[in-house]
Amino acid sequence: MIPGALRRFRSWNNSRNASLILMYHRIDDPPIDPWNLCVTPANFAGQMEWLDQSGLACPLAAVRGNAGKIAVTFDDGYADNLYSAKPVLAKEGIPATVFVVIGAVGTNGFWWDELEQILLHSPSLPASGLTLQIDGDQIRCQLDEQDLRFTPERLAESKAWIAWRDSPPTTRHSTFRALWEKLRELPHEVRARHLATIREWANSADQRTKFRPMNADELVSLAAGGLVEIGAHTVTHSRLSALSPEQQQQEVSQSRRWLIDHTGQAVRSFSFPFGGASDYSAATVDWVRSAGYARACTTAGHAVNPSSDPYQLPRIHVPNLPADQFSAWISQQFEPGSSAQTP
Ligand SMILES: [Zn+2]
Description:
TIM Barrel; two-stranded parallel sheet; 5-stranded parallel β-sheet; binds zinc ion; 2 domains; globular; alpha/beta
């Protein structure tokens, strides 16, 4: 089965030597997905089946300078990568790289998921507002009366809301977005302190299990068998450009050492948290190189070509599409000037 889209891609690609690096985060079907991070298990199975049939899959290490190939990557290290993605990758024989945030291994989850849990999933939130002093700015959390109580049905009304694209439908959404923007800039310890204040204000107990990252044993299971390469995605998933040079170096090299110690495997690939051009600096790239990595990935949403910097490889955020639409979407990514939107 060679769909028309794939034929077009191949002929275009012959003259461009382009390849693609796909970026996934989670394989799940949650009630809402404000950062567009999930591909459902059914769609992921269809996408990987298509990729297998296309004959284009290749490991991340081989994608640059190997024209017309497609590499699969995952960011952050969610447990669903082991339970929902790996069986599909194994069935189709698709190699993948999973970039792990080592400070999150074995914890209840990432700060952005907890923030979503508190603001968007809590059945009720206090009428009394909360004022946070963050970096000299005052951030005021004050919900409208009609947003204090939130049912699953009410939440479902905003199922299609994407935080980086759409205007917020309620004061819960606008507060969530404003806090996310601010917390993202902070060093890990400061962010954790503010998150604790928000948790206390909301009277929220962090009992999430579904959005959790892998624990250390699960990481070893994921790496077993040689199909999945483990890469580093820092210690705390901080925006590196907001950290001091020393903190950045620590984030880059500690995560690599920890992963080598815990998986017993070589760790040669890195991905920048958030991954936009302003989320790291030229110095960060130098530290990644000198820490012993062979390559690093960004979230610049376009194709890879032989002149791509191996330490700033662009990746394309994969939308939650069934296989037939995925095929057409893949083809579009190889069009000159195409640039996928990424969070
Ligand atoms: Zn990430």
